[in-house]
């Protein structure tokens, strides 16, 4: 990267604060095993009394899905299997409801038709209850026609897959054992209580902000829409403020409950961008890394109400007919992969440049995909 990359990103980061869009935030860029950008600013709390430090932890919402996907692919490769393996071969009860032929790859790329549940009496805190409901669930109509994002169900699918492959180990524990501890990542799916004092409060989007995607907002307003159903099943922890509770922070919520630093998120993706190797030792196999960057689905997403593209568990920028990116949330490289979080957080890997990027914040903005703040940082990185 050019030597002025840090100053460009700093200028964009400071402009996000100057324009009043941030309360507290941090951004980190790692390249080829080294952190080349590390910035933080603002405050951890709505009252703007507690400064944001480099070790401040914060909720990253659906950016957690990249962590969960890495665990699922790691466990899958360790078992000598691949994404074309049928889920029912690993999880026999999954075959109920006409799901016997659905593959792991279809589940992880959001094309299995399981983005929402018919059951309305379940809680995100009840893994066993949700797993049993998934077993009985019939895929929604048109599931074979393209992606249908699973904002809440994805984590339960990945978690149960890991448990079945690794002797019942919950995915939060698996993450710390295989990635968090060996790689020194201050990044958690289920945050230990002794670390809660370092955690920023997540703040809801400001009232009156224009919707990022009007079609999505309109679908969310319809009680019977698939979009509304997906974002409320399983239920519980629907209010932003509820995610600041000690119980939510402690819980292992692999769809939306990851908590960590920008530096840890960027380091994780830098390792993936480097082929899964850290300090000369592989932490995840080359086959699993290739599954992360191999596009498996693209199309108009029935739940997000826009064009999406996924590898086995990671979001990729969709391409047009000529192979050019329709949008560049993850930078210009066609093979970049990662995952955003609701309200603005973002982590991704760019294997072409050996880059891992992480941006976290506590003031949410409207929308599921990253908005102007993250986009400005990514654009500055690649200018």
Short description:
With 383 residues, the chain is of the alpha+beta class.
What labels describe this entry?
383 residues, 13 helices, globular
Describe the SSE topology.
Layout lengths: L4 H14 L5 E8 L2 E9 L15 E2 L4 H15 L8 H4 L13 H5 L18 H10 L16 H13 L5 H13 L3 E3 L24 H7 L5 H5 L15 H5 L7 E3 L1 H12 L3 E2 L2 E2 L3 H7 L4 E4 L6 E4 L4 E2 L20 E4 L5 E5 L4 E7 L10 H11 L1
Antiparallel strand pairs: 1-2, 1-13, 3-5, 4-5, 6-7, 8-9, 9-10, 11-12, 12-13
Helix pairs in contact: 1-13, 2-6, 2-7, 2-12, 5-6
3D structure, described in words:
This protein has 383 residues and is α+β, with helices and mostly antiparallel strands. The chain has one domain: DD-peptidase/beta-lactamase superfamily (Beta-lactamase), CATH 3.40.710.10. It is built from 13 helices and 13 strands. The strands form four sheets. A five-stranded antiparallel β-sheet has the order 2-1-13-12-11, sandwiched between helices. Strands 3-5-4 form a three-stranded antiparallel β-sheet. A hairpin with a 5-residue loop joins strand 11 (337-340) and strand 12. Helix 2 (64-78) packs across helix 12 and helix 5 (127-136) crosses helix 6 (153-165). The protein is globular and about 55 Å long.
């Amino acid at each position: 990267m050019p030597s002025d990359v840090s100053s460009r990103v700093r200028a964009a980061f400071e402009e996000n604060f100057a324009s009043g869009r941030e309360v507290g935030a941090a951004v980190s860029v790692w390249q080829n095993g080294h952190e080349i950008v590390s910035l933080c600013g603002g405050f951890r709390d709505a009252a703007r009394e507690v400064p944001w430090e480099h070790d401040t932890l914060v909720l990253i919402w659906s950016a957690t899905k990249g962590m969960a996907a890495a665990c699922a692919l790691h466990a899958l490769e360790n078992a000598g299997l691949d994404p074309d393996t049928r889920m029912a071969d690993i999880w026999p009860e999954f075959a109920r409801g006409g799901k016997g032929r659905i593959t792991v790859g279809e589940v992880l790329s959001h094309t299995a038709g399981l983005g929402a549940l018919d059951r309305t009496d379940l809680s995100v805190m009840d893994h066993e209850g949700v797993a049993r409901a998934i077993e009985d669930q019939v895929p929604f109509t048109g599931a074979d026609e393209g992606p249908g994002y699973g904002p809440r169900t994805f984590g339960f699918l990945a978690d149960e897959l890991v448990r079945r492959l690794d002797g019942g180990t919950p995915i939060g524990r698996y993450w710390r054992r295989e990635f968090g501890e060996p790689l020194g990542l201050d990044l958690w799916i289920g945050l230990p209580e002794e670390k809660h004092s370092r955690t920023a409060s997540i703040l809801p989007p400001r009232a009156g902000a224009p919707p990022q995607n009007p079609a999505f907002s309109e679908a969310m307003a319809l009680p019977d829409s698939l979009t509304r159903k997906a974002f409320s099943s399983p239920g519980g922890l629907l209010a932003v403020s509820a995610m600041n509770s000690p119980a939510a922070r402690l819980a292992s919520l692999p769809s939306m409950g990851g908590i960590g630093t920008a530096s840890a998120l960027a380091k994780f993706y830098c390792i993936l961008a480097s082929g899964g190797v850290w300090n000369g030792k592989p932490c995840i196999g080359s086959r699993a890394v290739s599954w992360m960057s191999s596009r498996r689905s693209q199309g108009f997403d029935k739940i997000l109400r826009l064009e999406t593209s996924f590898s086995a568990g990671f979001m990729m920028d969709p391409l047009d007919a000529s192979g050019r990116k329709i949008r560049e949330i993850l930078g210009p490289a066609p093979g970049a992969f990662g995952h955003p979080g609701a309200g603005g957080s973002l982590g991704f890997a760019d294997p072409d440049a050996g880059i891992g990027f992480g941006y976290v914040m506590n003031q949410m903005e409207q929308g599921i995909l990253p908005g102007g703040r993250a986009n400005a940082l990514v654009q500055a990185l690649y200018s």
